[in-house]
Amino acid sequence: MIGSLDITISALYILGIVLVGLWAGIRHQSKTKNKTNAAGEYFLAGKTLRWPMIGLALFATNISCVHLVSLAQSGFDTGLLNGNFEWMASFTLILLSLFFVPFYIKSGVATLPDFLEKRYDRSSRDWLAIVSVVSAVIIHISFSLLAGGIVLQTLFGVDMYTSVIIISILTAIYTVVGGLTAVVVTESIQTIVLLSGAVIMSVVAYNKMGGWEPMVEVLKNSGQMDKLSMMRPHGDSSGIPWYSIFLGYPVLGIWYWCADQTIVQRVLGAKDENHARVGPLFCGFIKILPVFIFVLPGLFAYTLSKSGHLDISALTNVQAGKEVVNSKGIYTLMIIQLIPKGLIGVLVAALLSGLMSQISGALNSISTMVSYDIYKRYKPDATDKSLVKTGKISAGVAMILSLLLLPLLNSYESIFNGLNDIIAHIAPPITCVFLLGVFWSKASAQSSKLTLWIGSAIGVAVFTVSKLYPDTLIGHVPFMMMAFYLFCVCVLLQVSFSYIYPVRHTAESENLYWKSPFESFKTPGWSGIGNYKLLSIVLLLIMSALFWIFR
């Protein structure tokens, strides 16, 4: 339990974010209320976003309470291994900047399902809209609420559902009222607060351990030196050997960073193509930090517990005569035992930043897709006012559904693994149709539709079998490799169907694929250090060096 000072700091932070969100959204709307494109102003901030805000907002939408809590948990359980998910993201952000952004900006779309219609057909758009809304509810909101609820319950002694309902309502208020402008402004603030809180935890844990060498010594003595390695051998108990990272992650990462509305909506609101390209690269550089400020504290917690500097008895129980640590609460335990009073409030504010930014970003994306991709389908003459109203209602409904899913998702032993397990079965067909659509001229509309339908059905079937019958062959396949296998099936499906049903390009779709990958680099970009080509090369070299060091 935390003291009144820290509770006051946390409460003032929540109040401040809500007020800033309302102010930013209402101010933007008052400036644009007489403009003809009211819906575009609400959902895409009138396409005025610059690269720093895009990069910060991308990071804030990605990093939630799930990451602060579950990456620390994974650091405690398996060491630096799950840091792969953070560093591999930089490579997919380079792909987003170089190869996907130009088409998204050129086509002038408001949503990614809208892009699929322009490249393929209406059926592909409809299917992606439905899947994207469902995945946003489950992945971006429900899992974040679950992680946040666990932390708030431990810190404040408040019932998990009560605390997340209050936070959800407050976040929904400024998101629904202010639209994307409110979301991006608050996300930029929340990113800074979140990073500050995470850095404080890393520094405190590092100092408590006495530095890097004492941690390594504890790992040597306990026979756990593999916790410092991010590249594990075949047969590793984690189920994530090195090759699964390079085969499976791109399937998850391309869907998440390049084809998921909740993430890419910030790019769609960019002022121009250069801002849209540099924003993701800026986020790619920020993604270097999570391994050191989210995962590493969990590893320090492990060595601190082994050396007697962190009491984890509250998380320990006996099962079948053996002591088992429920590591879900390790981050909260570190806050209570390691952080001085006054700074605890800052750490809680950081956790709330992650929770609120994730929820607000997802709600805004859901409202955009429901309005443009579903409602406008049946009401093509809908006014901007009715589109905005529909978006606001859909955001409220999505919030309620997310809360109802919490008991089901809480059954996962690891929040982070549970999150990626679901993504591994959703992502393959979507990654497939986007990749082939952008890089292969022969990818046809009919093949896209059938691949999305059949690929999604296979993913659901495999997921169901693996959960109902975990002892079968399917149940033993690690989720990263399952993502790769499902992706291969989807590619085979789409290529086959593209030859059975040959492509018939429209005047629009003819301009929405690369005739050659090198065509992407013809846009000169800004001069100097801000050039997207230079930044891509620098980021690529830095990430390659980091993987080599921590291999």
Characterization of this structure:
There is one protein chain. The protein has 551 residues and is mainly α. The chain has one domain (4-405): Sodium/glucose cotransporter (Up-down Bundle), CATH 1.20.1730.10. It has helices at residues 4-32, 38-44, 51-62, 65-78, 84-107, 112-119, 122-156, 160-209, 212-221, 242-258, 261-268, 273-286, 290-306, 330-338, 343-378, 384-404, 406-409, 415-439, 445-468, 479-500, 532-549, and strands at 316-319, 322-325. A hairpin with a 2-residue loop joins strand 1 and strand 2. Helix 5 (84-107) runs antiparallel to helix 21. The relative contact order is 0.18. InterPro entries: Na/Glc_symporter_sf, Na/solute_symporter. Belongs to the sodium:solute symporter (SSF) (TC 2.A.21) family. It is found in: Membrane.
Major beta-sheet overview = 2 strands, antiparallel
Structure classification: mainly alpha
Approximate helicity band = over 70%
- As laid out across the biggest beta sheet, the strand order is 1-2
CATH architecture group name:
Up-down Bundle
Q: Using the alpha-carbon principal axes, give the shape.
A: globular
What is the H/E string?
A: HHHHHHHHHHHHHEEHHHHHHHH
Keywords: Membrane, Transmembrane, Transmembrane helix
Subcellular location: Membrane
Protein name: Sodium:solute symporter
Organism: Mucilaginibacter gynuensis
Topology, pairings included?
Elements: H1 4-32, H2 38-44, H3 51-62, H4 65-78, H5 84-107, H6 112-119, H7 122-156, H8 160-209, H9 212-221, H10 242-258, H11 261-268, H12 273-286, H13 290-306, E1 316-319, E2 322-325, H14 330-338, H15 343-378, H16 384-404, H17 406-409, H18 415-439, H19 445-468, H20 479-500, H21 532-549
Antiparallel strand pairs: 1-2
Helix pairs in contact: 1-8, 1-15, 2-8, 2-16, 3-8, 3-11, 3-12, 3-15, 4-7, 4-13, 4-15, 5-10, 5-12, 5-21, 6-7, 7-8, 7-15, 7-16, 7-18, 7-19, 8-13, 8-15, 8-16, 10-18, 10-20, 11-15, 12-21, 15-16, 18-19, 18-20, 19-20
